Amino acid sequence: MCGRYAQTRADDALERDLLVDRILGEPRAPSWNVAPTQDVPVVLERQEDDGVQRQLRSVRWGLVPSWAKDTSIGSRMINARSETVLEKPAFRKAAARRRALVPMDGYYEWQKHEHGPKTPFFLHADAPLAAAGLYELWRDHTKADDDPARWLWSVTIITRPATDALGHIHDRCPVLLPADRWDDWLSPAITAADEVGALLAHVPEPHLIPREVGRAVGNVANDGPGLIEPVE
């Protein structure tokens, strides 16, 4: 799974790196310990009056389906398995029409041991990463029709089996999209399940670098660049 990650690029860097047309919302602070239910930056494409627009906006991590009674379900929807994302009722409509990129510097996984506590690792590459995500809009019917907060935007990160050399750390990893796959993944024109399935099936294996880090990352209250520093 992907349950914690780092995202420290400023909005202008994300705008440049991910070819964003428009930034929406307030400037986002960097975080070395992004956790579920927090607001996170995502990149998505929407059909606007002047055509398709690539947007950077903040959404809540933990997808809330449009049919949910309340938002509590989101804490259990932080990840979606690539093997079943086109079948699960919570994800299949978003997989067809509401796909996103989740920018990150790298993500954390905890390696299990037969005895003793788990060991945290920061998995990263030589360049920033972009994970495949799905976003959804949930209508809060307790709020007035003219209340801008009546819509909750949320996101889930798609995961896949970790079949490369890092599989010994954790058996799953985010679906990390290289830059030449971004356009198709975000395209509102691709909606057929078989096409989306093909996009996921042909994503190349990521080449990530594992770095053992300190246990402070396990506390969501901790933040700062020291969290990704290697342990001595």
From TrEMBL:
Its EC number is 3.4.-.-. GO terms for molecular function: lyase activity; peptidase activity; single-stranded DNA binding. Transmembrane segments: none annotated. InterPro entries: SRAP, SRAP-like. It comes from the Bacteria. GO terms for biological process: protein-DNA covalent cross-linking repair; proteolysis. Keywords: Covalent protein-DNA linkage, DNA damage, DNA-binding, Hydrolase, Lyase, Protease. Belongs to the SOS response-associated peptidase family. This is Abasic site processing protein. It comes from Cellulomonas denverensis.
